[in-house]
Write a structure and sequence with these properties.
Blueprint lengths: L1 E8 L6 E4 L2 E4 L4 E6 L4 H14 L4 E5 L3 H10 L4 E4 L5 H9 L2 E9 L18 H9 L5 H4 L18 H11 L9
Parallel strand pairs: 4-5, 4-6
Antiparallel strand pairs: 1-6, 1-7, 2-3
């Protein structure tokens, strides 16, 4: 899930928001939008479309990961947090403690894939095998199939602050942010 989060004072008035090219603002000529790297291209397109329709408006969009965007929303360094995961209850509690409620708007859905190099003899993997790869139970292709070459696995994916990484690892291992180091 890709979404945008913004602040609404607990009194109920919207402070700022960006979703699907629509801007709601009560106070800002300049909007800071930060968070998910997977949402970044979409958020940039929304910002450009809005600024084209509203000359003089300024929207700055940057990445860093869902956690970075949500932390920025909580600590007041960003107006809109782009996230590829829902907010955690602990994050919502921090917002309430700062006297605002986050408002979530879904803008798109993620599709995740697992790919291997075309020269790799693997034709399919089970969710259990992929989970074992990401938790470190499988570290060599020979462990997947005895006929495979004796070669270490090289895993690539988003960083630990990524909501996409968190959702992916939770889906395949049952634990968010599970990795070989856990």
């Amino acid at each position: 899930m890709k979404c945008n989060l913004w602040k609404a004072p607990i009194t109920g008035a919207l402070a700022v928001g960006l979703c699907a090219g629509t801007m709601l603002t009560a106070f800002a000529d300049s909007i800071q939008c930060r968070g998910s790297d997977t949402v970044l291209p979409l958020a940039q397109a929304w910002a450009e479309a809005y600024m084209k329709k509203h000359p003089g408006s300024s929207i700055s969009v940057s990445g860093g990961g869902s956690g970075v965007g949500i932390a920025g929303l909580i600590n007041g360094t960003t107006d809109v947090a782009n996230a590829s995961r829902p907010m955690k209850s602990s994050e919502k509690d921090k917002c309430k403690a700062k006297n605002f409620l986050p408002i979530e708007h879904k803008g798109a859905l993620d599709g995740l894939s697992i790919i291997v190099h075309p020269d790799n003899p693997v034709k399919s993997l089970t969710v259990e095998q992929v989970g074992a790869m990401f938790t470190g139970k499988i570290t060599n292709w020979k462990q997947v199939d005895a006929s495979f070459p004796d070669m270490p696995l090289k895993l690539y994916g988003p960083g630990a602050d990524s909501g996409t990484f968190e959702n992916f690892t939770e889906a395949i291992t049952g634990k968010a942010k599970a990795s070989r180091g856990d």
